[in-house]
Every structure is written in structure tokens, then in C-alpha cells.
Amino acid sequence: MSLQGKTAIVTGSSRGIGRAIAERLGRDGASVVVTYHGNQAKAEEVVSAIKASGSEAIALQVDVRNLEDIRQLFQKTISHFGKVDILVNNAAGKNIFKPTADMTEDEYNSMFDITRGVYFALQEAAHHLADGGRIVSTSTSGTVMAIPAGGAYSGCKAAIEQFSACLAKELGVRGITVNTVSPGVTETDGLVLDQAQVDQLIAQTPLGRLGQPTDVADAVSMLVSDDARWITGQHIRANGGIV
């Protein structure tokens, strides 16, 4: 129970990687705020799982594209739990892969609107996080792979890495660490690849399999623990060595 007495916000945590992170932090002893965009039932399942592990949890509906929602997320968390110690920025929209020549303005905006939300969630964390707190944002290993048709997607995630690296230098004086975790291809219900593509990716991965949400959650658990107190401004690739 390494996070006993801590309060964590995990955005986009009703399913997939976010759910695995929220449940892991709950098992580590943290009280967890589970956020969801549309599926309250799934979010309540996560809350129930966290409570079953012995920790407290609530679910809040949040659209990270809406700055007032982000502000209210922090206010409601503080009102309910008294403080915020940990922020995990995991919320994501639809990942769109298209050649630069074909990407529409609306498609581009739909991804960068989420990135904008991450920036202002980091701003709220800078205002409200307890000294000695932890911030982790999820990115993608695609930021270093130069994937064809991935320019807009990789760009919106690369921005999050830069937000985090700069914020780490701003908040270090308060003992707050700021890092990003970059998954590789991870087996979730959002993975839309045929078997041949999956097999090719597995063949390129030194550890010989697809990532699981728990692989990423375990990396986040480490980064928000006291054991990682000397790690900040880093981009950690939890990707089985594919890059």
C-alpha cells in the first residue's frame, strides 16, 4: 500500500490503459478519481473494483476538451478527498492515421483538442497539487518512430512530452515530479489491426508480444511512488523494446 493516504486523478480511466492505471493505484492504496466521457457504467465498474481492493474511489464525468470541466475536476476532487497528490493524464480521443495530404482540419483538431486539455490539466495541477506530488501523462512510442500517416497523431503526443519536460523544471522546487510514459502497441478494445499486422509488430518487439494495459499501469505505479522521487522530466517507453 505504497500510496496509502494519497489522492490520484486518472483521466480517461473507464477502460483500457486508464482503467488498468486507476485499479493499480487503488491497489497501491490511493484514493482514486475515475473520469469518463460517456460511459458511466464502465466507470462505476472501475470504482467498484478499486473499493473491493480496499481503497476509496469516485467517478466523475469530464470532457477534457472543456476547460471548465478540467477546473471542476480538481475542485470536486479537493472537495471530496481534501487534496490532490497525483495526476495521470490518460484521456484520449480517436487516434486518426492519415497521410498529411489527406488529413482534414476537423480530424486534426479532434486530436489536438485533447492535447490542449492535457496542457490545461497540467496548469490546474501546478495550482493545486500538493508539494511532493506526482504527474504522469501518457504519450506514444510513435513520437520517435516517424510512422507514415502518423504525423498529426505523433505531433499531438510529442507536444505533451514537451509540456511535461518544461513543467518538470517549473515544479521541481516543490518536489513535484513530472514524467511521461509512452506505450507501444497495446492490446485494448481500441486496437484496430488485422492479425498479419499484429504478428509483424510482435516480431519487431524484443520481448515477443503485444503490450497489455497492466504493463503500462505498472510503469505508472512506479513513477508515482516514492521510489521514483529522483526521476523527473523523463519520457519512459513502456513498449517491450520495439523502439
Secondary-structure map with pairings?
Blueprint: E1 7-10, H1 16-27, E2 31-36, H2 40-52, E3 57-61, H3 67-81, E4 84-89, H4 105-128, E5 129-138, H5 151-171, E6 177-183, H6 195-204, H7 213-223, E7 235-238
Parallel strand pairs: 1-2, 1-4, 2-3, 4-5, 5-6, 6-7
The CATH homology group name = NAD(P)-binding Rossmann-like Domain
Main beta sheet: 7 strands, parallel
Summed over residues and divided by their number, the pLDDT gives a mean of 95
Tell me the count of domains: 1
The portion of residues assigned to helices is: 40-55%
In CATH, the architecture is: 3-Layer(aba) Sandwich
Question: Which range does the strand content fall in?
Answer: 15-25%
The largest beta-sheet arranges its strands as 3-2-1-4-5-6-7
- The gyration radius over C-alpha positions equals 17 Å
Distinct helical segment count: 7
Q: What's the helix-strand series?
A: EHEHEHEHEHEHHE
Sheet/helix structural class: alpha/beta
Unreliable spans: none
- Which CATH first-tier class would you pick? Alpha Beta
C-alpha termini separation: 33 Å
What oligomeric arrangement do these chains adopt? single chain
What this model shows, in words?
The protein is α/β, with parallel strands linked by helices. It has a single domain, classed as NAD(P)-binding Rossmann-like Domain (Rossmann fold, 3-Layer(aba) Sandwich), CATH 3.40.50. The chain is 44% helix and 17% strand. The chain has seven helices and seven strands. It has helices at 16-27, 40-52, 67-81, 105-128, 151-171, 195-204, 213-223, and strands at residues 7-10, 31-36, 57-61, 84-89, 129-138, 177-183, 235-238. The chain has a seven-stranded parallel sheet with strand order 3-2-1-4-5-6-7, sandwiched between helices. β1 (7-10), α1 and β2 (31-36) form a beta-alpha-beta unit. α1 (16-27) runs parallel beside α2 (40-52), α1 packs across α7 (213-223) and α4 (105-128) packs parallel to α5. The radius of gyration is 17 Å and the shape is globular. The two termini are 33 Å apart. 44% of the residues are buried. The model has no long low-confidence stretch (mean pLDDT 95).
